[in-house]
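Fresh eyes needed here. Have a critical look at this protein's tokenised backbone.
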Amino acid sequence: MPFLSIKKFIVLVGLVGLFFVLLFTKNISIADASAALPLETVTMKPMSELINSLLDSLLALAAGLAILFLIIGGIRYIRSWGDSEQTEKAKKMISYVVLGLVIILISYSVIITLDKIING
């Protein structure tokens, strides 16, 4: 028996992801330094650009993993051949994937909304 069930794992990953995204979405600027440029021409870029690009990458990764696990759940459902235990496991897997994806999308929309409110 695993330490965490799939449902608890998906919820935990969603909440930890939300925590870190909320933690690092402050309006902090970082220097975009290049070795070819003198120090006077260093431009400052807001940390929010880095966070937004990270969020987009994480959302794409989550969507790809969700599609993969939906396919796996669908294959398990088809291969159950009427075995009620295997059918229930496949249905649970599919519903947990959908739940995890909903949590991720809600987290993403909350972060985008907060970013627009804070940064204008």
User: Anything to note?
Assistant: The first helix runs from residue 6 to 23.
